[in-house]
Amino acid sequence: MPLHQPKLDNPEDLYVIKKYQEEIDWLKNPCYEPGLMNLLNEFKGKAQRELLSELLKEMKHQTIAEKIQNISFLVDTLESLKLTASDTLIVATAKKSESDGSNAWLYFFKFYLAQHREWNERSLQPTIESSIETLTKSPKNYKNIIIFDDFIGTGKTITTKVREFEDKLKEKNLKLPNIHIFSLAGMKFGVSHAEKKLDLNITCPTQIEKGISDKYTCPNEVKNKKALMVSMESMLKSKYSHNAFTGQYSLGYEGSEALFQVQFTNCPNNVFPIFWMQPRKKGKFRNTLFYRL
After folding, report:
1. Does residue 106 contact residue 126 with C-beta atoms inside 8 Å?
2. Which of 194, 199, 202, 283 is 20 to 30 A (C-alpha) from 49?
3. DSSP string, the chain
4. What is the mean pLDDT of residues 123-150?
């Protein structure tokens, strides 16, 4: 339960919540009700409510169990590429001493890899730094590196991390292994951007299109709905005195327009900020549909 339980400004919005829950199965979970109530308190206009409803219906929502199925898909891909434990490392993109989704989800590879007896703990590297150390100690042992992330947003971060990995190997005069990139999910435009920049194929079983720009075919409709969302963000900026609603996170980080969430996990900053942004000033609090540290 959140620290502050909101109350509906308009009791009739209880019927709106029930309608949303009937139409959108994942909203039936009680954990989302405080955030949904708060969204209805914040956005009372007809056009605002219609846009909220449309976006929530398009939201790609996964349970942890569904997310783990994507790991099964990645392991199947690994086998189809004929990558073996004797010459392959699976490396999370996390930095040293960083709490990161790639590191957290890497753990779930164990269940599937354990069914193939040749894989062991050394095959899984929790950080880029640890993989460099392993390659330095045994430079001839590993011909293949799988760089693993849990979510690709704009594609810039994974591009930077792969290039940093390559640069560190070059600094140590180590031969560059074959690099493969796996991600559990990502923005379609971001995956495409990274593939072009790195000249590598990316295996990403769940790819998300932009929630407004890629959904509507009429340019004017796209323009109007994006303008409406920006106005909704501006309302929150004024209410909470929090510039982040309209800064680089407007429409999601760098305009990503993501509609994606895995239940009980940290929300990607690529998602529209009205669903997760919290004010940081003392004395300000906002119940959100999703949460992010």
Report:
1. yes
2. 283
3. --SS----SSTTHHHHHHHHHHH-GGGGSGGGHHHHHHHHHH--SHHHHHHHHHHHHH-EEE-HHHHHHHHHHHHHHHHHTT--GGGEEEEE-PPTT---HHHHHHTTHHHHHTTSTT--GGGEESSHHHHHHHHHHSTTT--EEEEEEEEESSSHHHHHHHHHHHHHHHHTTPPPPEEEEEEEEEEHHHHHHHHHHHT--EE-SEEE--TTTTT---HHHHHHHHHHHHHHHHHHHHHHT-GGGTTTTTTTGGG--B-EEETTSPPPTTB-GGGT----STT-----SS---
4. 92
Euclidean distance between CA atoms 28 and 26, whole angstroms = 5
DSSP string, 125-171: ESSHHHHHHHHHHSTTT--EEEEEEEEESSSHHHHHHHHHHHHHHHH
Q: Which residues contact 11 (CB under 8 A, 6 or more apart)?
A: none
Q: Is the pLDDT of residue 282 over 80?
A: no
Q: Return the amino acid letter for 27.
A: L
- Is the pLDDT at 2 greater than 80? The verdict is no
The CA distance from 14 to 147, in Å, is 46
In a 10 Å sphere around its CB, with 0-12 CB exposed, 13-18 middle and 19+ buried, how is residue 185 labelled? buried
- pLDDT: which is higher, 238 or 283: 238
The tokens describing 287, both together, are 């119940």
What are the extents of the domains in the chain? 13-62+230-275, 81-208
Residue 34 has pLDDT above 70, yes or no: yes
pLDDT tens-digit readout, 35-48: 999 999 999 999 99
